[in-house]
From TrEMBL:
<dbReference type="GO" id="GO:0006400">
    <property type="term" value="P:tRNA modification"/>
</dbReference>
<keyword id="KW-0694">RNA-binding</keyword>
<feature type="region of interest" description="Disordered">
    <location>
        <begin position="278"/>
        <end position="337"/>
    </location>
</feature>
<feature type="compositionally biased region" description="Basic and acidic residues">
    <location>
        <begin position="278"/>
        <end position="323"/>
    </location>
</feature>
<dbReference type="GO" id="GO:0003723">
    <property type="term" value="F:RNA binding"/>
</dbReference>
<dbReference type="InterPro" id="IPR040183">
    <property type="entry name" value="THUMPD1-like"/>
</dbReference>
<feature type="region of interest" description="Disordered">
    <location>
        <begin position="1"/>
        <end position="27"/>
    </location>
</feature>
<dbReference type="InterPro" id="IPR004114">
    <property type="entry name" value="THUMP_dom"/>
</dbReference>
<protein>
    <recommendedName>
        <fullName>THUMP domain-containing protein</fullName>
    </recommendedName>
</protein>
<dbReference type="Pfam" id="PF02926">
    <property type="entry name" value="THUMP"/>
</dbReference>
<feature type="domain" description="THUMP">
    <location>
        <begin position="152"/>
        <end position="259"/>
    </location>
</feature>
């Protein structure tokens, strides 16, 4: 029995026992970017909506990220350089070498997310096709930023910078897609344009877009925005001074105020700027012949038949009548009685 128990027991050491032991793998802590992994749009965010063709969301995201970063360096290069310089000065110490403090600082930096390297643009994946959202941070101002991109694209002989992106829509501020949330966002966004002193009367138009949302109706949104604009301003749908753009998506809403060249710039649609859709020519209406009374038709037929005859008579030259010969008197040859 003792021998059998020894045979059944596993060896305590040796090469075979060592190979069966699980090896412990050392892994460095992963640096997770809390901004790049944000999966939802939150109240207080600002950003840019973009549309593309179905199935092109990934390629559109990549080309827009490159385009946005290039324009950010062009428009905000000095401010970004100042931010980088301030971050570098904070990392510099008092010059004393303290190896233990440096190690502790490096370990602490590895454990916390790199908030100082917060990107200017990061995309948020949405549960809807053909739509992309890029969240932005200061110093990027979405309206002026997008308008500069579209203006450059609309210049003569401008190179085409995008292949998959269609329309861009900047959002100054996002909030909850409720009546109170909409009014709160509207008060903050509309104040610099409609509530300034001295008062300046402006003509405006409201253009809402609703996706995957069924709580607030279109007319409710328009009425709440118009009430927030307040008195002293006029609604003009054809030639407004300012356009109030409202985007509602599931449980979030956003508002921005755009200049009146929005329609002239193809509604910020980059694809339409480079390859405009041909306009359809209006079709000519074919009018059905009107019914005429039988008497009128009969008179028209008679006039048409008589007209050629009169024409022929007019074309025949007048024949000169021959001179009449003098009549010769006929003598009565009767025999005398």
């Amino acid at each position: 029995m003792a021998d059998e128990s020894k045979k059944r027991s596993a060896p305590s050491g040796g090469a075979d026992g060592a190979s069966k032991k699980a090896k412990k793998l050392w892994q460095t802590p992963r640096r997770v970017d809390q901004y790049a992994t944000q999966k939802v749009i939150l109240p207080g965010d600002q950003g840019i909506w973009a549309t593309c063709d179905k199935g092109r969301e990934g390629k559109c995201t990549g080309e827009l990220r490159d385009l946005f970063n290039e324009y950010a360096q062009l428009l905000y290069g000095d401010q970004l350089a100042a931010e980088a310089g301030a971050a570098g000065s904070d990392d510099e110490g008092d010059g004393e070498i303290n190896i233990e403090a440096e190690i502790q600082q490096e370990l602490a930096d590895m454990r916390k997310p790199p908030s100082q390297s917060k990107p200017l643009f990061w995309s948020i994946k949405l549960d809807v096709q053909c739509v992309i959202f890029f969240k932005t941070r200061a110093p990027v101002e979405p309206v002026s930023f997008v308008r500069r991109i579209v203006e450059d694209a609309a210049k003569p002989n401008a190179p085409k910078r995008t292949r998959f992106c269609n329309r861009l829509m900047p959002m100054t501020l996002m909030g909850k897609a409720t009546e109170n949330g909409l009014i709160k966002v509207a008060q903050e966004v509309l104040a610099p344009h409609f509530h300034q002193e001295p008062h300046v009367s402006r003509k405006f138009a409201i253009r809402p877009t609703i996706r995957n949302h069924n709580v607030m109706k279109r007319m409710d949104i328009i009425q709440n925005i118009a009430h927030t604009v307040g008195p002293g301003h006029q609604v003009d749908l054809k030639k407004p001074d300012l356009l109030i753009m409202v985007e509602v998506y599931t449980s979030i809403c956003g508002i921005s105020v755009i200049p009146n060249d929005y329609d002239a710039l193809k509604k910020y649609n980059l694809a339409e700027i480079f390859e405009p859709t041909p306009k359809e020519q209006p079709k000519k209406k074919i009018e059905a012949p009107k019914e005429q009374p039988a008497e009128d038709v009969k008179m028209e037929v008679e006039e048409k038949t008589e007209a050629p005859i009169a024409k022929e008579e007019a074309e025949i030259p007048a024949v000169k009548e021959e001179a009449e010969t003098p009549a010769v008197p006929i003598k009565d040859e009767a025999a005398p009685a």
